[in-house]
Amino acid sequence: MLGKHLIIDIHNIINSDVLKYIKDIKPLLKLIIDNTDLNVVGELIYQFYPCDATVMYLLAESHLSIHTYPELNYCAIDLYSCNNKFNAETIIEIISNFFNDNCWITKHLIER
Question: Is residue 89 part of a domain?
Fold first, then answer.
């Protein structure tokens, strides 16, 4: 196996204010990175006006990105990793806890 590709859609985020600005959504990404032993080697961020955010991390193991849509109470996360410690259920639990279980999460896991 070369790696795992996890595609996550998070709908019905009650507190969509957390999706508006990079400073508010980056803690979620930090939790994912810290709890899955990923290694950031680069970062790209873009703050849309008046609000919406895109954050992308280049990882030693591949990539992690998030795109937020506060007007739709939605965000999308994409993680591809060749790290053997990658656990999709751990990531889903982190996301669920971050949004206080007030969301609807769908995931697609592809083993490559």
Answer: yes
